[in-house]
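#structure-requests
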Amino acid sequence: MTESKGENSMFVSLDVTAGGSLDFYKGVNTLTAEGSVLNRTILSMDEYYGEVIAVSDTGDTWVTNDGGSGTTGFNSETDLWSSSQDFFDGVALTAHQVDAIDRHYFTANQYVASVNGDPTSSGNYDATAFDLTPGWRSRALAPYGDQYLAIAANFHAGQTHPSRGRIVIWDGVQTVSSYRIDVPENYIKAIYSLNGYLWIWAGKACNLYVNAIGSQQVTLVHRFFNSYPNDVSFDVYPHAVAHKEGRIYFGLSNVDSNSANYNPGGIYSFEANPNRFNIDRVYTAQTSESVFKSLIVVQQEDNDILYYSEETNAGGSFVFRQRLFSSDSDIYSTGSTATLKTITYEAPPGSKLHIDKVTIETEPLPAGVSISINANNEDGGSFSYFPSGYQTDGDEYGVDRGVIRGRKVYFTVDITTAFTTLPVFIRRIVAYGNLIPDNK
């Protein structure tokens, strides 16, 4: 789990000994051990009022203990939520925190808890600020405009897995919600508010919906493919969503190996505008069923840099940083080929995708680099695109034409280095075409 703490810094909690106790580290390029060790599972970390707050699986809250700078770790003696408060009610949930309206809020199963002011003072906490009524449990939170809090709630009714989900809109004052937004899925996984829209990940495939703030309607904007919808549930953890430069980034977790052929687990991004929606995968999971619990943006060297954690099914725990174009070391060996695979695009029932043009945009290419793009359909058909007019020294845009049709289409990109070890950065790949009847 990672969380930012001011400029050029972040906190990381890692089970480095695999013994169930977490060590806390601080830094960016180099992580330095910090303070106390807690024998807890940390479900959530966030910054509020100049402090970092960690919430454990027991419902306890732990706060950095040095009055703001966060340099001496966590006070293992300070339990700011009463241990008699049964937040988890026997069900393991992912905790979430967010700033909204005029205070800091926490998910607390049936309740939404809050802290108003200095989090090192237990008197500033309200463990039951809002009651969702029995059976409903809070999963994720987001500010909803300037006046409201959006609560992603799921109905469990005594079961581990929920049967339906909704967004509850609350003004932070009244004992009842202002209104609710129904989502046509059985489980809401995460929500995120940006640019006048609420983005919602829901269902066993973590399908993506959008709601215009102030309305009570949701629109499906992207559907992920789940090979085993009755048995496998993908996940987007509430803290694994962030934004930078007008795009929202999120981690898609627990994707099985078969579904990964269509949409691998990893870090995805999209423009935060439903009228210009496009989705890209910027990092592919190391293993199937990898878990991404945290994703943050830290200001570093005048850049907003993306950091994310990954837990693999082989038992490894990693914290990755987005590469910096100007300062990162070489990532290729001379003569090597790297292959990138896009998500699989699926046509609506009764139709096919007809693609006849592909463009690619990159950072200026180093000398000695060649790129080819391959389009593939579900029937095994393929077409190779070698962008015309696309040289190997400084070009940033290429285009080529060639027809491929299919109900499901994906692209692979081969990047081959002849004699350079400089990195290649792809901005975007765009396919042009239209829908045609399925019988053509």
